[in-house]
Amino acid sequence: MLQVPLPLDRDGILFRLRFTTLAVGTVFCPLFGFLFCVIWSLLFHFQETTATHCRVPNYLPSISAAIGAIHENAFIVFITSALGHMLLTCILWRMTKKHTVSPEERKSYKWKQLLFFFTFITFAFAVCVYFHHNWYCGPGVYTIFAFLEYLVVLSNMAFHMTAFWDFGNKELVVSSLLEDKHF
After folding, report:
1. Judging by DSSP bridges, how do beta strands 13-18 and 171-175 pair with one another?
2. First vs last Cα of the chain: how many Å apart?
3. Which of 75, 159, 66, 84 is nearest to 115 (CA)?
4. What's the pLDDT at 80?
């Protein structure tokens, strides 16, 4: 049987992708989706997505209103999981990277800590604002909640983007062994 050789380079590499490119692309997808949904809601469904049971003026849609598929309980599960992941990542990083740490890894760890605390505090504040809105129905209060909700989601994306420093010198490589194959 006649075999047609694949266009391989010397090392048999079929595909190579720097991890930094993968990290940026991976975080860009949900960031684009998030921004698109919020902007679309503001431009084309402003009244529906900013209205609440209080019937007071609000200027930003909550994430659930913008995306239209997230229930309050689902967001609580998401943020609880995200905060748990962030905390465990920081703890495990500290336990395993005590002595041999590159400047990029140190920067990554500092950002991970900062983003965990920022997310935790922002979420706690968002919960307080959410209950204040539901109990007192102040104008614009739900807008503050929505903005804090955005910050929580964006800081979660930023936390995952720290992988840029963790794996900055790594590549995803798909290759084929250069050896004779007998069928």
Report:
1. antiparallel
2. 9
3. 159
4. 94
